[in-house]
Fold this protein.
Amino acid sequence: MKCPKCGSEDVIIQVINEAKLVTKHHGLLWWICIGWWWIFVKWIFLTVPALLALIFVGKRKKIVNVRKKVKVCQSCGKTW
Ligand SMILES: [Zn+2]
């Protein structure tokens, strides 16, 4: 493997673990296609459960461990 900056072959690969806090939420397309009527239906039939769902589901966060491979050039110190 060659360093893209200096062309050195002296490159090591480091695997690092990154803890990411991910908030689960729907994308814009979801809101445009489903979100508005889904919320509407929920408000009519499930007003109370919907409120509870918003409180609990809306704030649900996940900790995701992301494994990242980082290549480090030993000559110039470039990481990519
Ligand atoms: Zn380099």
Remarks:
- The chain has a mean pLDDT of 80.
- Strands lie at 11-23, 61-73.
- The chain has two helices and two strands.
